[in-house]
Every structure is written in C-alpha cells, then in structure tokens.
Amino acid sequence: MVIVTKTDATQADIDAVVKRIESVGLKAQISTGERHTVIGVIGDKTLLGDIPIESMSGVDRTMPITAPFKLASREFKDEPTVIAVNDTKIGGRQVPVIAGPCAVESTEQIVTIARLVQKSGASFIRGGAFKPRTGPYSFQGYGEDALKMLQDAKDETGLGIVTEVMTPHEVELVGEYTDMFQLGTRNMTNFYLLREVGRAQKPVILKRGMSATIEEWLLAAEYILAEGNPDVILCERGIRTFETHTRNTLDLNAVPVIHELSHLPIVVDPSHGTGIRSLVCDMTKASVAAGADGILLEVHHDPDHSMTGDGAQSLFPDQFEALMQELKPIAIAVGREM
Questions:
Q1: Domains (range + CATH), the chain
Q2: DSSP letter string over 258-302?
Q3: CB 317 within 8 A of CB 117
Q4: What is the value of pTM for the model shown?
Q5: Using one digit for the tens of pLDDT, what is the confidence trace for 17-70?
Q6: Do 122 and 98 contact (CB within 8 A), yes or no?
Q7: Which of 150, 158, 180 lies closest to 84 in space, CA to CA?
Q8: I want to staple 100 with a disulfide (CB 3.0 to 4.6 A). Which of 126, 157, 231, 304 is the partner?
Q9: 267 with 205: CB under 8 angstroms?
Q10: Paired residues of 97 in beta bridges
C-alpha cells in the first residue's frame, strides 16, 4: 500500500503518518516528488487494523500496489528516479558512460585507461578488484590493493569509481573506496548481499541475472529498496539463450519495459551483452536509441594481454573516443545528451 499526501502537506503531517505506520511494527519508505510525497507501507498492512490513515492531516488517499515489486514499481513512484553520484546524474537527461577494464591489473594500467576514457567523455571508471570467475583457477582480482589503485585513478582524473562487491562481508571495505557498488549477474539472487548493500546507503548497479526474467530482476532490486536504499540502477547485460554466436543475447526490450514498469533508471552493458568487440559499438548506439539511462563499457589500452581473458569484448581507446562522438546525435534524437 502507498499513502499519497496532499500538495500542501507539511513535514509534521508526514512525520505523523510515518510514526503511525511504525507504531505497529511496519516500515515506511518515503519518496518525495514535485507535487506529492508518497509513503510506502512495507509489511503486512492488516497490522494497521482500523487505523484511519485516510483521515489523518495531510493525507490525500491510499492505494494498493498490485505489482509484486512494490517499491520498484511505477505505482509507488510515477516520476523517474534520478540518482546523483560524483556530480553526475543517472536517470535524467544526460546519458553517462561508465568505462574501463574488466579487472584492475596495475596502477599504471588503471590510471592510463582512466585518463583515456575521461578525455573522451566518460563519467566513471570501472574495474574489478574482486572478480567472480567461472573457473576457480582464473585470475580473481587483487582485492583491496586494486581498490587503492582505483582510488589513484580517481585522484588523477576525478572520475567516479564503479566496482563489484561479491560478498556481504566485503561491503564495508568496498564501500570505503567505490562511489557505486556493482552486483554482477551471478549475485542477482544473493539475497544476503542484496540486503547488505541495501543497508549501506550507497548507489547500487544491479546486473540482470543471466537467466532472470524482468520480474525476478525487479524483485531482486526490491530487496535493496526494502532495506532503505532508494538508489538502485538496473543493468541489462545480456541473457543466456540458445544462441551461441554471441556471448549473451542483449535484451534491449528490457529498456522500455523497465521504464514502463519501474521508476528505476536502467543502464546497458553491450560489452558483456555481445562479447564481441565488433558488435559493441552498434549495440551501444542501439541502447541509447532505446532509451538507456547510461552505458557500461569495457575499454582496455592493451586488450590482447588482459589478465581476465575478456579482451575480445573490450574497445580500444580510439574506438571508444570515436563511439562517444557518434553517440551524441543519437542521444539528441531521443531527447537526451551525452
């Protein structure tokens, strides 16, 4: 259930409604819009009993939320959520780009790439410090040392940091360095981790599980939102289908579908979505045309010697620079800007 306040509701009115909700053991989630404040009631609403919420000062109406993903739904919040991170807004008119290598391999490597992508217009540097790999003998990342290298890249360029957190006990450590947590496809249903980043109060990029439906993906986001963290960014990164030519099948249907079902911003990762360098630029352009709120790309200055083996999907810096210029007219055509 959501409670919609009147346009002239005071902060005291809102506080009184929240106090009434919490007095019976329920949680209240507040979303402030341009005209109304919406208060989501989390938990069994029957606990409210005969409490006359509608008659309280400042309350306009109450509405049930029919979607299973309550807080992520358009029913809870009709206005798009815009998330401000490191002087960049995600979900607004701008389409920010997050770029960098699959993994942080050295200070020289990550600082070099950060300088190159910043010069071309990226807003964030990405790179894995802890790497979830299919095989146990593959490079797993340098951990906290890699986080410090990312901080060096930020100090050098001013770019925000995006890096993956893999387990609940690493959330505090990673949170000391990153501007946005990234949760990878394998962790979309790691519910303990979802709850922990929900408590961390730092923006989260939640990648779609490789075989997840859109509803399952939004329900995963719900775990984060329900812990009180409103800053969730969904990431379409391709799903596993019968097609074997590409690494995954990039589901661009998900972009307008998410905008229809949810107020949360959605970014697209064409690098993992295709796995093939020659396809990444075209699918990036298609993502912007489809309405993506941001782009996540792998860029490496020496991809053939990448320690992760993901070099085949990484753009060279000159390709990235050309792509950033080619995206500008597409963004303008759909009412956005790069």
A1: 2-63 (3.30.70.1140), 83-333 (3.20.20.70)
A2: HHHHBSS-EEE-HHHHH--HHHHHHHHHHHHHHT-S-EEEEB-SS
A3: yes
A4: 0.89
A5: 888 888 888 888 887 777 778 888 887 777 777 767 888 888 888 878 888 898
A6: yes
A7: 180
A8: 126
A9: yes
A10: 295
